[in-house]
């Protein structure tokens, strides 16, 4: 398939299109359903302030709400700087491309990068709830090639990212691999995440914030 994205490097695209954590506007980073001691409060402030995963119009963030596969794709697309995709002109065999233009562009972009594939009926199920395990696989498959291309050992670089989402997934960098188990980044905050559990907005904010830290460190 053809894509009108200007870059195939998520790290480079993100760096050009998404503000750094230091540019988060504090006045917009507080939500009535995210207390100051919430384990994901910093990640949520970053996700909202950068626009990667903004809060809701009613002033809440809904940190425990489930994320659909389409919403996951949209957040990753924004993280990469929202590479331009001509949805109408992009050929695809997928049979359930989202009707929402933003989600459609995100799904087609990820599909074009070989990160999201259709099932036997060529469906990507954009409205289905994503699991933590699916989030881990998609994040790994998207980021690992970019990290390897930047001569970064993808395995240790992705450890903290995968720790947020629990479960285990093997990532490779050249001849090295690392398998992640359930782990926490700050103790109580992220303990024992069930990889088969629905991916929540708080989980995704934490994972994407860790991606930002990984890419800029």
User: What is the helix fraction of residues, given as a range?
Assistant: 40-55%
Which spans have pLDDT < 50 for at least 5 consecutive residues?
Answer: 1-8, 10-28, 167-192
What order do the SSEs take from the amino end to the carboxyl end, as H and E?
HHHHHHEEH
Number of helices: 7
Shape: globular
Largest sheet entry: 2 strands, antiparallel
User: Radius of gyration over alpha carbons?
Assistant: 16 Å
- What class do helices, strands and sheet pairing give? mainly alpha
Q: Could you please describe the fold and organization of this structure?
A:
Helix content is 40%, strand content 4%. The protein has 217 residues and is mostly helical. The protein has a two-stranded antiparallel ribbon. Strand 1 and strand 2 form a beta hairpin. Helix 6 packs antiparallel against helix 7. The longest helix is centred in the middle third of the chain and has 18 residues. The radius of gyration is 16 Å and the shape is globular. The N terminus is likely disordered.
State the gist of this model.
This protein is mainly alpha-helical. The chain is 40% helix and 4% strand.
Summarize the SSE layout with pairings.
Layout: H1 10-17, H2 41-50, H3 69-79, H4 101-112, H5 132-149, H6 154-165, E1 170-173, E2 176-179, H7 201-216
Antiparallel strand pairs: 1-2
């Amino acid at each position: 398939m053809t894509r009108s994205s200007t870059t195939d490097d998520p790290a480079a695209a993100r760096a050009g299109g998404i503000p750094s954590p230091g540019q988060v506007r504090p006045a917009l980073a507080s939500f009535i359903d995210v207390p100051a001691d919430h384990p994901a409060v910093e990640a949520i402030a970053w996700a909202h302030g950068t626009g990667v995963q903004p809060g809701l119009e009613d002033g809440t963030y809904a940190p425990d709400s489930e994320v659909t596969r389409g919403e996951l794709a949209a957040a990753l697309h924004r993280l990469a700087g929202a590479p331009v995709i001509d949805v109408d002109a992009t050929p695809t065999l997928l049979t359930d491309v989202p009707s929402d233009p933003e989600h459609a562009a995100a799904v087609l972009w990820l599909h074009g990068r070989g990160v999201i594939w259709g099932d036997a009926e060529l469906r990507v199920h954009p409205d289905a709830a994503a699991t933590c395990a699916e989030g881990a696989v998609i994040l790994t498959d998207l980021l690992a090639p970019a990290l390897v291309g930047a001569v970064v050992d993808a395995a240790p670089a992705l450890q903290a990212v995968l720790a947020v989402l629990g479960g285990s997934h093997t990532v490779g960098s050249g001849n090295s691999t690392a398998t992640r188990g359930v782990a926490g980044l700050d103790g109580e905050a992220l303990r024992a995440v069930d990889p088969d559990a629905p991916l929540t907005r708080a989980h995704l904010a934490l994972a994407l914030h860790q991606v930002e830290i990984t890419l800029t460190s």
